[in-house]
Each structure stands twice: as C-alpha cells, then as structure tokens.
Amino acid sequence: MLGDYRIKGRRASEIAADIEHAVGAGRLQPGAALPPLRDLAGELGVNPNTVAAAYRLLRDRGVIETAGRKGSHIRQRPVTTPRDQVRIPVPPGARDLSAGNPDTALLPALAPAVAVAAAAGDREPVLYGHSPTDPGLISLARAGFLADGTPDGPLAVCSGSLDAIERILTTQLRPGDTVAVEDPGWGSLLDLLPALGLRPVPVRLDDHGPLPEALAEALAGGARAAIVTVRAQNPTGAALTAGRAAELRTVLAAHPGTLLIEDDHGHGMVDQPYESLAAGPDGTLTTGRWAVVRSAAKAYGPDLRLAVLIGEQEVVDLVLGRQRLDTGWVSLLLQRTVAELWRTDAAPVGRVAAAYRARRDALLGALAAHGIAAHGESGLNVWVPVPDESGVVAALVQRGWVVAPGARFRMQSPFGVRITIASLAPGEAPRLAADLAAVLASATGRSRQM
Predict the structure, then answer these.
(1) In this structure, are residues 202 and 181 in contact, taking their beta carbons and an 8 Å threshold?
(2) Which of 64, 121, 147, 160 has the fewest CB atoms within 10 Å of its CB?
(3) What are phi and psi of 363, to 5 degrees?
C-alpha cells in the first residue's frame, strides 16, 4: 500500500503534516492508497476519529482524494486548496489579525496616480502591438534595483509576485524537480509548487533568513532551485543580514547551476536594507540563473496586481515569451499608476516602515514581558511558537483575537501562530500578550495533567 513508508504522528495535524511532507518529498507516490482509518489508528495507537480528522484535513488541502469504499489515495497530481482560503471565522467585535493585509491607513491615495495614468492613456491609447512595458516604470525599477546592488539585466512586468515566480519556475524547471523553500514559508508558494508538479524541500530559517547549512543540505540533495525572501519574510518576519547573505552566497556558489529566485515583496514598506544573493558587493554573480522579484501589493495595496522582476537574460526572455502566449501584457494603465506612485510616494516609505516597526516592537516587547519567545525582524507579521496551534487559535478567538494557524505556512517546522501587526495599535499589544500568555499557561497545564 505505502511500501516501506510508515506514517507517524499522534495528533491529526501531525499525521496530516507527515503525509503531506512525504508526498512533497516523493516518499509517497501519486496514486498510493492510504491505510483504512481503523488500521492506521491501531498502528499509531490513536482514536480512529483522529485519523479521520487528519484525512479530512488532507482532503481539504487537495493532497488526497476519497472514493467511498475504495478508500483514500494520494492525488495523481496533488493540487492543494489555497492555504489562505482556510479562514478562521471572525466573531462580531473580535480583532482580525490573521489576514496579512497592510494597514489601509498607511496606503497612499490612488486617485491622483490613476488620474495621471489615465491621462497618458487618453493621449496615447494602448492597442494591440503596443510595447508591453511602460518606459517610466522600467526606468524607475531598474534604478531602484541597481541602487540596491542587484546585478543588471533585462526586466519584465508580471501580475504580482506569485505570477512572476510561477512563470520563472514553469519555464526553467520540469515536473518532478525539487525546489528549496523556507519552512515556515509563504503558504501560497507552498501551494503553488505541488500544483506545478514540483517538490518542495524545506529549509530551516531564523531571524536572519535561511540557515546556510540547511540550504546547503537541500542543494546537495538535488534541489534545482531556491526561493528566498530577502526581508519581511512571511510568516516569521526574517530579514537577511549582510553576514547571512555572504554565507548563503558561498553556499549558492558551490552549486552554480541553481535557479535562484529572490522575493522582495517588502520593498517600499520596510526599513531593512536589501541584501543581494545573486551577486556579491563586488558584482560577482553567485549563480548563472537568477531573478529578483519586487511587488507593489504590500506597499500600495493588494489590488495593484503588479510585480517587476530583473534577472539573467534567458530567465527573463523565457518569462516574456510565455507571457506573450497567454495574457500578453500587464495593463499599461496599471503600470503607469505604479510608476506614478513610485515617483511621488518615495518619501513616505520611511514613515510607513517606522509605523510597522513600532507595532512589531510593541507586541514583541509585550510578549517578552510574559516570557514568550516570538519572531518579527521586519514586515507585517510576528511568528509565535506554540505547543498546539488549534487549541491556541480557538482559545484566542474566545478572547476576541483571530490569528492565523501555523499549518498554513509549515512543512516540517514546529507549531506556531502568525499574528499580523499591520493594524494592531501599540496600546493593544499588552492585552493581546496577556491573553496569549494565559492561553499558553492553560495549554501547558493541560499537557502536564495528561
């Protein structure tokens, strides 16, 4: 049924995570039949209801399918239910700190920029055959990339970070290839990889980014690509330091054929400097295949579905070639709007970054006062390790706080919850920290009694 593989876990979330990781690692093949509920429950020494809950979670995530009396099987091509669609209901009066959205009060007004872009469209309507990119946007993007130390190269405009990353992966890799990704990491990316037939390899990280030894292990194990968030990592807030970036460049240089994708979605709303992995301070390239992606979503609003990428010539050429065959181009009206925002909204970036930093620091400080370890070097989120995600999330809902369960972001990493601080006023942090401390104390007491 499963060959030599033995499923592990005591809780439903642990059993589901073990099976999903085995699928991603290729140890459980598409089409493999899973044991009947009672058989697996007996083998693990748990209640059959626990296994049923694990299988239900895997079905919801698209990892397995159930065919009545024929039992449950690994999908032929697992396509997971988007993790961010598994929402915790927000009761009336509760604070929703789960969504990962920016604070709308810190977003710039769109009307003036849209008006400028629309006026340009009136003067020169965009028709078929028009250049697919706005020269003003490309000029500003290139200047920003080069000022931050990114290697020079051609640019492309895509419909957001995930669209850019998908296009790079589908034109550079083949189904079955493995990709090194951060764990915990961006849930949408963890969904995308199996949907493309790619296998994610988890890479551990700390507050300074991926651990060099973990990335080295993944690449030595055959990973053909690595995707790294340079700052505002989701969900932990990790941000590369100059020292960590140098260590990772050394690892990448030992595997020069690696496809490197740098996700810099925090551009425009963080105050940590950008640290390049594609090239060192002297401009020497780390790998021959690379791309850096910057999105407008967090700085200017998720509805501005636009990202600009710079990269090695062949990488970008293939992205543009594929784009010409499907969507054609990203709306010039949208491109000109973002260009105008970049031209006119550069100064307030420091103010926005400072506001998010103050909110993160307030929560981290309040948690530390209760002896709770947490992570949040940059960006919109704070990651808190917990012993039991579902219990902590449910107990916080009862106290008026909705946070995101770590299952949305994890592969092998320990349990945790993600708290979005974007709209959390510093004055609210002490109450949230006190409530979380009480919940954790209660959970610890229950585990000791068991």
Answers:
(1) yes
(2) 147
(3) -70, -45
